[in-house]
Amino acid sequence: MNSSWRSPSGDFAFGFQQIRAGEFLLAIWFDNIPEKTIIWSPPIDGEKLVEEGSKIQLSEDGQFRLTDARGEKLWDAQLTGSGNVLYAAMFDTGNFVLVSQDSNLWESFNQPTDTIVPTQIMKRDSKLVARYAEKNYSRGRFRFLMQGDGNLVFYVTSFLWDTVDLINRAYWASNTVNQGYQFVFNQSGYIYLADNNGSILYSFTSKETSSTNYYQRAILEYDGVLRHYVYPKTTNGITRNPMNWSMQGSEPSNICDIKETQGSGACGYNSYCSFGDDQRPRCECPPGYSFFDPDDKMRGCKQDFISQDCNGNQDADNFEFRDKLNMDWPGTDYGYFKDVTEDWCRQSCLTDCFCSLAVFKDGECTMKKFPLSNGRMDPNLGGKTLIKIRKENSTYKSPDKGSREGSIDGRSREGSTFGSNKEDRSTLILTLTMLLSGSSFLDLVLLIATLWLVSRLCYWKRRMLQPSRANQGTSLRSFTYKELEEATNKFKEELGKGACSTVYRGVIDIGNKNMVAIKKLDKIMTESELEFQAEISAISKTNHKNLVQLLGFCNEGQHRLLVYEYMSNGSLASYLFGNLRPNWYQRAQIAFGTARGLVYLHEECSNQIIHCDIKPQNILLDDSLTARISDFGLAKLLKTGQTRTVTAIRGTKGYVAPEWFKNKPVTIKVDVYSFGILLLELICCRKSFEQDSEDENQMILADWAYDCYEEGRLYLLVQEDEEAIQDINRVERFVMIAIWCIQDDPSLRPTMKRVSQMLEGAVEVPRPPTISPVNV
């Protein structure tokens, strides 16, 4: 695979270039320089590298085809024109062509990837696609388009789970609609946009550079900048200095200045971009934040602390500020105040739970909210940025070994190596001191070994006598039917009723719980027995703050009952569709909590669980209105390594994913669909289907929400909610997420982990595709 097809002068070569051990890239590159810089590779989706044994050949059906070692097709050159391929040629310009008797059937110059070279022209409807990273040749975030309308633009794209990308708004444009005709890199090294008469509309280079003395290329790099590079050629075997690629010009001049209305900016959410002396952007995290992926700093940053509690101002005392100069996140403003002091600005942000940071400049205070977007640091900005973070003694940290499972009475295993308490350790220190002063080293070693062995035996003895934390978390109390009958005053106070069960309020002394909810299965049928077993099996193994905790059960004769912790605020349905509706902030928190609970069920508990019946009636609210997922009667468990299952239709009409009705295997994506419908209901405070709606276009919520989104009239969804209207950007983000969730094709729906990240602003939300009309 190391063979290549060189141009007559040897300046360029076509073939397989080795990138990593056993991995190659079909490419065209500069072959007369040590760097072997690549200028073209085929537009293969995802990672472009191929394994050893892959080959490129002219197939029997006349196609120029790349296949892997097993003969599977990876890429075809899309031939145009008539006739069969007579020959191929690698020209000294860097253009590789396939030629018939009448015309060129295909040429690499017409299918550029991220680079163009002298004599190459980009006509209308052509583009450059940046790579993901310097050494990662899969598609990146940025596009450079010569549009069909004559406008030359730079775009940021939103990734759709490595399969599709969707264009966001342009961050640079030539503003030459109906004028621009082609983008030219001429033989003299001059790069410009021309009209159909050849007149220059916009110049990308300030001076011409002779291609006789320099190799040249213009590349859209992974950071979104189009840069023009030159490399000195040799003359009579004498190398010109310096012998490397040097930059001649770039566009845009400062990528940190881009502002995405719907996106994160150059460096991802919650990060900021600064422009270095090397003319390249640097992505950094503000204090209290860290990179999602340290190896991919353009993905943005995440909070390293728990956000401020909005239920009262008590939590404000746990926060403080870190000051930074010349920093801003435009586009996330929600409060602006004039003629105030810096102290006033600090205190106002400190007591406002929505405020992530404030910028104070010249007596003006601007409040910013999470997620932070379009962040940049520039000496020309001025002002002081006050970044609010949780104080060190209250910052959330991952548990260390001393608090993980396996610790005894809060001590780490390491802490019990030589003794179980302070007295043991003090005795040991005294013993060691005496030994060191009057015993041989061998005696000391033997004694230490003996003490260590005794301490480990004591440790494991205590561990055997004490139930493990895992067992404590999943052990359930077994009740008699008489106990539960007495606890509910003979099932007197009904809390709710479902198809196969009724829930009653009860009072039981069970740990620190008194008030409980007791679910009684009404129908003693096979289905109810299966439901009972499923719920016991599923919930007894779960432990998460966004799930309702199962405390006990009764399995006595024909009686099947489940004992849950009591949720004082009832179901989301009664709260959301009743007279006392939650405010916009509360609805957002309920969406976050429900999403986190589903992430736990899908990805974090021991057995993956598909809930199968996510709806407002099954989301309960505790004292602080925290969302708690309940009713695992329909839950479906997946075994380790299993990703889908076949089962009869489950769930509730209006929330059931389309694949249920197509007799196809179901996956965790059925819960994603149901969550999408639930999210729309949370946004609009209305049911997903309202038959009595005065406007038939608003009867089906999903269809109406999509229409409002497409028409740019999202305010109609929350027109009586002033708080939501003031936060219309978040409303739009939520609607876009919901549209992704309710796609007919399960593969297009994001995972709940991705949904949770998008909801909380940790990752961008790409523009969603069209949704099919919803049948209710």
TrEMBL record:
It comes from the Eukaryota. Its main location: membrane. Residues 1-111 form the Bulb-type lectin domain. Keywords: ATP-binding, Disulfide bond, EGF-like domain, Glycoprotein, Kinase, Lectin, Membrane, Nucleotide-binding, Receptor, Serine/threonine-protein kinase, Signal, Transferase, Transmembrane, Transmembrane helix. Residues 489-771 form the Protein kinase domain. Its EC number is 2.7.11.1. Residues 395-414 have a biased composition (Basic and acidic residues). It is found in: Membrane. InterPro entries: Bulb-type_lectin_dom, Bulb-type_lectin_dom_sf, EGF, G-type_lectin_kinases/EP1-like, Kinase-like_dom_sf, Prot_kinase_dom, Ser/Thr_kinase_AS, SRK-like_kinase. GO terms for cellular component: membrane. It is a single-pass type I membrane protein. It catalyses: L-threonyl-[protein] + ATP = O-phospho-L-threonyl-[protein] + ADP + H(+); L-seryl-[protein] + ATP = O-phospho-L-seryl-[protein] + ADP + H(+). Pfam families: B_lectin (PF01453), Pkinase (PF00069). Residues 395-421 are annotated as: Disordered. GO terms for molecular function: ATP binding; carbohydrate binding; protein serine/threonine kinase activity. Residues 257-295 form the EGF-like domain. Belongs to the protein kinase superfamily. Ser/Thr protein kinase family. PANTHER family: G-TYPE LECTIN S-RECEPTOR-LIKE SERINE/THREONINE-PROTEIN KINASE SD2-5, RECEPTOR-LIKE SERINE_THREONINE-PROTEIN KINASE. This is Receptor-like serine/threonine-protein kinase. It comes from Rubroshorea leprosula.
